[in-house]
Amino acid sequence: MSLRFRLNLVIALSMIVIVVVGAIFTIYNARKSVREVMTTSINLAIKSVEDGISDPLATQNPARFWQSRMGLSAGTQNLRIRIILPDGRVVDYIGAWALQPISPAPAWFVWFIKPDVSAKNQLIKTDKGLIRVTIRVDPSDEITKSWKIAEALFGLIFLQALLVGILVHLTLNKALRPVPVILKGLENIKTGKFNERLPEFDVPEFSKISDAFNHATSALEQAQNENRALASRTLRVQEDERRTLARELHDELGQSLTGIKMTATSIIKENPNSKAAVDSIISICDHLFTVIRSMMRRLRPTLLDALGLAASLQDMIDNWREQNPNTIVRLQCEDAVEACDEAAKIHLYRIVQEALNNIARHSQAQEVEVNLKETSCADFNQDKNQFNEADKCIRLTVIDDGQGFDVDRVPPGFGLLGIRERAESLGGKFILQTQPGLGVSITIEVPFGATPL
Fold first, then answer.
1. pLDDT tens by residue, the chain, 453 residues
2. Separation CA 293–CA 296 (nearest Å)
3. What is the phi/psi pair of residue 444, to 5°?
4. Strands (E), 343-390
5. How far is the C-alpha of 348 from the C-alpha of 351, rounded, in Å?
6. For residues 53 and 280, what is the distance between their CA atoms, to the nearest angstrom?
7. pTM beyond cutoff 0.70
8. Which of 38, 34, 20 is nearest to 146 (CA)?
9. Three-state DSSP class for 290?
10. What is the DSSP string of 61-75?
């Protein structure tokens, strides 16, 4: 749940609470007002009856008298009054408003504010006996008045809450607008992209975050470039040492072994009885020749300089198959790849070599596909700042159908880190895709004319 959503949710709930509290307050006041009006009307009616009892007309023509008197009394228009005189005569009075249609207020509002004061019985003592007065209240008119007032208040409260909510929402949206930009910058750091910078923000606090972020990314970018340059130099020195060692093995040790074999052969001519010992020496020399050739192939593929990248990869794969006969390896290498830089070729060769070593140690794969081809950088360029989309790139993919692994639980080993370093030393990209049981896919993309940094 994002911060923006949570804040908007809190604002919405706050506005709802304000509306509910306002509605409760309005209903409470309406109920109180209706109760007071009804109580006042009943009390006024009783007082009017008490005051009119002494009038002689009250007994001469009671119906006309009480109708006239009640009609002139204030607050009796919403009452139903029955007066039972001592002689048993009954006088009924129905207020004009009590004859009006039912209140237009909604049922829930009527239910909330309708008071429990709806009728009252009163006995009045006179010289001629007891007068029984029954007063019933018709609250429809007061409820209608209260509803009109409440309706206006409800509308005002709702409109106010809506306007405040919109204003706060817009203010928060404007204030939190930098948050997605900052989160994207942090994601870039997470993925190792330190060339992105945050803009200046209007909010001072976010502006300080932007300055600190840009300073940190600048330092990280510089450290990354220095590390890549150091790693590239280390790899270059390593390859130079391997080339020198391979040459020494070929020139010095190879010539020495050849000399030993020739010397041993000459010994047989002088001393035929030493044939068994000489044969043993020659066998050891032949074994050493095989070991040296294997070491030279690992140190520096001689076919790479003589026949190119495709031939050297095929030779490496053929030797790898001898040690892993249960795994099928298919190689596809376009001729256009041969035009890349010599230093880039050795890095691509080493990447395939390390990938196959990882497969042999961990994958338990049945089939492996190695593919090198020339492609447009635009086909691979997910980061627009990584490559010029008009340039050509070399794409290397190594895919196996092995057991795979969970990247979140199993961190990449030194082999994959070495592959990443070699790709980045060429200014390229490295993508690892794997899931448990679904094999591993390694994709390397480097600019066609790339040379180590």
1. 676 777 778 888 888 888 888 888 888 888 888 888 777 777 777 777 777 766 666 565 666 666 666 655 555 556 777 777 777 777 776 665 555 555 677 877 777 877 766 677 777 777 777 878 787 777 777 777 888 888 888 888 888 888 887 888 788 777 778 888 888 888 888 777 777 888 888 778 888 888 888 888 888 888 877 776 777 677 677 767 777 777 776 666 777 777 777 777 777 666 776 777 777 877 887 787 777 777 776 666 766 767 788 888 888 888 888 888 889 999 998 888 888 877 788 888 889 988 998 888 888 889 999 999 988 776 555 444 455 544 788 899 999 998 888 877 766 666 788 888 888 888 788 888 888 888 899 998 888 766 555
2. 5
3. -120, 135
4. 367-376
5. 5
6. 151
7. no
8. 34
9. helix
10. SHHHHHHHHHHHSTT
Alpha carbon 21 to its chain centroid, in Å, reads 35
Tokens describing residue 349: 């060769």
Nearest to 452 by CA among 425, 423, 422, 415: 425
Question: What radius of gyration, in Å, describes the C-alpha atoms of the chain?
Answer: 50
Residue identified by tokens 């070593």 is 357
